[in-house]
What does this fold into?
Amino acid sequence: GGCGPVAGGEASFAHPGGIALDSSGLLFVADCGNHRIRAVTPEGVVSTVAGNGTPAHRDGPAQYAAFFNPCGVAIDADDFLYVTDYSNNRVRVLSRGGVVSTLGMDNEKLNSPYGIAVHSVPGRTPLVYVSSFHSNNLTCITPDSGQTLVLAGCGTARHADGQGENAAFSAPNGLSVDADGNVYVADSGNHTIRCV
It folds into this structure.
């Protein structure tokens, strides 16, 4: 779990979670157990891009910022990196300039955020979708305002199709979004893939 760049075979991860590719082909990994965000070049060189390894919540320059079990990562059209910070119940953002900030403060809607996906079109504000493992819901966050809205899920762990809070999930985790803005959810407790 060191911080300096190392060859892929010498790198070590602890419970790696989500992965995402940026526009240059750099692979980002949520290194959950090491409380860091790592990058892997196409040549296999691994480095730490954010997080000092201490399980905490601290914004600021990437090397000083702290995460607590980051699980998911997603990248928008402008190469901003969004991270679900599972044990902090937050969504964090890593700017292209290497600064970590917290997206919104409405964290009562985020209980163990796990999966994350971004619907991003160049020149428009992206929409960030987050699945909360223990809230059993799917939220949508607008980065400009930081407003967090429950998109789907009633909060109770069960299975129900329907609109908005009439729908129900059980421990949703992985997320993906297509070009039309349809969100796909790995509804782990129900052993199904759902579409919103």
About this structure: Residues 84 and 91 are 5 Å apart (CA to CA). The chain has a mean pLDDT of 91. DSSP finds no helices and 17 strands in the chain.
